[in-house]
Amino acid sequence: MVTQFDEKGKFFTRVITKRPVNVVIQTPTHRIYGQVHVRPDERLKDELDQTGAFLAVTEATIYDTTGEQIVLRTHFLALQVQQIVWITPLEELMPSPEAGED
Fold first, then answer.
1. Would 98 be classed as within a structural domain?
2. How many CB atoms lie within 10 A of CB 21?
3. Which of 9, 13, 21, 98 lies most in the core, judged by the most C-beta atoms within 10 Å?
4. Tell me, what's the pLDDT at 17?
């Protein structure tokens, strides 16, 4: 980590504060539940726009395409952004309607 000092002896680092957002990510071959870290006062979309070729996902549980069978669990995953079919915050998910309801 790079530390810089000003003329008064105060030090500054390039640490960026972020908040975890619980997400669901669909790729062509897997469904991933985990956390993406987003800067305060920014949206998940803003983080995706600022990221490079890979998106960091923490506390990831990787399922098969249907989301039924666990394939892998890991504390850290670097996901190639080009493989993302869709991504949504878990808090945005709505309950599925019951069969027969409009």
1. no
2. 18
3. 21
4. 85
